Amino acid sequence: MGSYQLIYSFKNLSFSFLLIFFVACGPEPEIITPDISANNSVLVINEGNYTWQNSEISLINTENKHILNNVFAQINNEKLGDVAQSAFVTKKYIYLIVNNSGRIAKLDRETLTKIDELSGFISPRYMVSDGNLAYISDLYAAKISVINLHDFSLMKTIPAPKSSEALLLLNNELYISNWSGGNAVFVYNLDLEVYTDTIKLAAEPESMVLDKDNHIWVLCSGGFLHTDFPALFQVSNQSKQILQEFTFSSKDFSTKALRINSACDTLYFLHAAVYRMDIYEQALPSEPFIAVEGGRVFYGLDIDTDNSIWLSDAGNFVEASEIFHFSPQGIKLESYLAGVNAVHFYRF
Fold it and tell me: Is the pLDDT of residue 181 over 70?
């Protein structure tokens, strides 16, 4: 399983809570008490809308096929905040990075109760960690925030190009994608505390993964306004040179969400539809692995530990997202309704 996949295997999670639906002038409220035990659930990050304070998390039980929405508010009796961007998971805790609220909520992994939070960030995006320290990218701040995970405190900051997005840790080097308005990945040596390399790529490097040969793949979106052609790069972690470059033939589609399977030998990404590509292929795939149908807007993509696929359709971006679960062969298994703009999925 790749260290930098966004799907994590959560074990020993066992709790239950009540979700009560009130229907005016209807029957008695229905009470659903899910059995959330080890490895049978998926955590969904619902981004919400900018300034609407409607970000949330959902839980999908993959055994009984139930979904619970508004989980954070029900457990913690408070709103999660404005634009939930991503999550980071350790053995004991879940860290929810809430972008426009400028905060990170620390949850107990077994109960999802909030036990702490850290605020004062400008626009936090993603987190990676070596087990002791965590590094946080930021959309608007020209810095990487460094957090001590033992006492959950801000330890220091690392000057960085504005803005930073995807992060990757390898051999005590921190790879930082210079996203909005940028075109490079910067390499920061954590031992020397200096930048050692700048890898020039294409417009707006958006996501990164590590393959089984320890090469780094970077997907560049082509820019928010689709001004440039999207491109996919394979980079050597030793020489920092580009090994392969694949340029997409169209600027017209949203290109994002580069993911990799558990064997770290197959790439997945969104280019309107879902595409799949072996790391040894010499060209971009010509046909989608999962096609777009019926005007759908694929928004979030993650690969599960069993190589099944989680995919969200954001619809009109203000109502419930539709979630699809596909088999590793691309066969649709189930669908669910989650929160607004579901963007990431994490296995429990």
Answer: yes
